[in-house]
């Protein structure tokens, strides 16, 4: 009997040890067989075909590694015991580049929801901190896109960029929804942006309520020095659409005259007068902003839907997306999204065709009106005498 008791005690100890070992193994190791620093998903993407990296990380491999190097060199992000900077950045890109939920990202990267959320916010903060560096004032020389075209040069030689606004779906509390509801009844944040003709963002100001007119946002920015809008050198100007006033530093098209490119299709392609010619060429150049917005939204679909984040995070995501947009444009001129959008003409889009009624009564700037008239006259005279290209 004593021998039997000893045998049972030994069996219980073995069973207890086995149970402890099993419990310890499932709580301290990932669900899959992963190396300590890189998941199988990361290895598959970074060692796989280029197209897979473009699809999952929304950029080419060398562009991805370049930004990871900046994060690491400047100490903006740090490798942790289980998550390298590359994986932290990949988590962020998978969320904004596919609008994926936390649970999907948990499964893909084999990390807890808290880990995913923490790294998303850390990367968002790091990218936003680069905005001053990556959103630069435009060069003061005539843009190559104008110099290379007889349609635009010398008429628009002093143009340094384009300004417009885009509406991005917003998730806001019920008490704020009336202010964020735009003309179509959709909850949006109105984002003011300036870009170069090379499709790089110069300035971005997200967070405005969807009900606010574009022209009012621009006025608020110009009236507030803290917004750091790039100073416009004397004689230079941005192109703005019919939702803005024609004033010094901002050249708008002629009101009451067809403007958008789709209005010049079909049987009435040729301009019938000087103002139509000016408006058509103005619209053709301003199309750079449409292209920039479309590349941005194609690359980061989270901007097409209202993400379930606090509004300050939604606002910061827009800034981060623009920073990444510029980084990609500088590092990879042949980026597939820039190439595909560049080959397309303007599509129908939402237009804010009238300035804010409270601002419309203001007298248009005389110098801006004179400049626009002189450009229009010179353009029409050249077109009338030699209209091989209009």
Automatic annotation (TrEMBL):
What gene name is given for the protein in this entry?
LOC113697791
> Start and end of every DUF8040 domain?
37-128
Q: Per its record, how is this protein called by name?
A: Nuclease HARBI1
Domain named DDE Tnp4: which ranges?
A: 163-326
> Which PANTHER family does this UniProt record tie to the protein?
OS08G0106900 PROTEIN, PTHR22930
Q: What is the lineage of its organism?
A: Eukaryota, Viridiplantae, Streptophyta, Embryophyta, Tracheophyta
The family annotation for this protein states:
Belongs to the HARBI1 family.
Q: Which InterPro entries match?
A: DUF8040 (IPR058353), HARBI1-like (IPR045249), HARBI1_dom (IPR027806)
**Main location, first listed in the record:** nucleus
């Amino acid at each position: 009997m004593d021998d039997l008791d000893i045998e049972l005690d030994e069996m219980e100890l073995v069973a207890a040890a086995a149970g402890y070992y099993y419990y310890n193994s499932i709580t301290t190791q990932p669900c899959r067989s992963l190396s300590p620093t890189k998941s199988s998903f990361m290895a598959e993407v970074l060692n796989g075909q280029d197209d897979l990296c473009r699809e999952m990380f929304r950029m080419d491999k060398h562009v991805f590694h370049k930004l990871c190097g900046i994060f690491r060199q400047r100490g903006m992000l740090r490798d942790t015991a289980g998550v390298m900077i590359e994986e932290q950045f990949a988590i962020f890109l998978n969320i904004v580049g596919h609008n994926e939920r936390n649970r999907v990202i948990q499964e893909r990267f084999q990390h807890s929801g808290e880990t995913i959320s923490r790294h998303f916010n850390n990367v968002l903060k790091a990218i936003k901190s680069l905005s001053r560096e990556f959103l630069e004032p435009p060069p003061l020389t005539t843009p190559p896109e104008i110099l290379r075209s007889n349609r635009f040069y010398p008429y628009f030689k002093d143009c340094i960029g384009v300004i417009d606004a885009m509406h991005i779906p917003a998730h806001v509390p019920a008490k704020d929804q009336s202010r964020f509801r735009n003309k179509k009844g959709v909850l949006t944040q109105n984002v003011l942006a300036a870009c170069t003709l090379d499709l790089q963002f110069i300035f971005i100001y997200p967070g405005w309520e969807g009900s606010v007119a574009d022209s009012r946002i621009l006025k608020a920015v110009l009236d507030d020095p803290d917004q750091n809008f790039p100073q416009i050198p004397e004689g230079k100007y941005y192109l703005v659409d019919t939702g803005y006033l024609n004033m010094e530093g901002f050249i708008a098209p002629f009101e009451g005259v067809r403007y958008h490119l789709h209005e010049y299709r079909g049987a009435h392609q040729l301009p019938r007068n000087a103002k139509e010619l000016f408006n058509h060429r103005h619209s053709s150049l301003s199309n750079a902003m449409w292209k920039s917005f479309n590349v941005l939204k194609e690359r980061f679909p989270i901007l097409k839907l209202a993400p379930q984040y606090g509004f300050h995070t939604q606002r910061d995501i827009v800034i981060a997306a623009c920073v990444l947009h510029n980084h990609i444009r500088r590092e990879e001129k042949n980026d597939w999204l820039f190439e595909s959008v560049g080959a397309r003409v303007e599509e129908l889009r939402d237009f804010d065709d009238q300035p804010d009624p409270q601002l419309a009564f203001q007298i248009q700037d005389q110098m801006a009106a004179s400049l626009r008239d002189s450009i229009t006259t010179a353009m029409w005279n050249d077109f009338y005498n030699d209209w091989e290209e209009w």
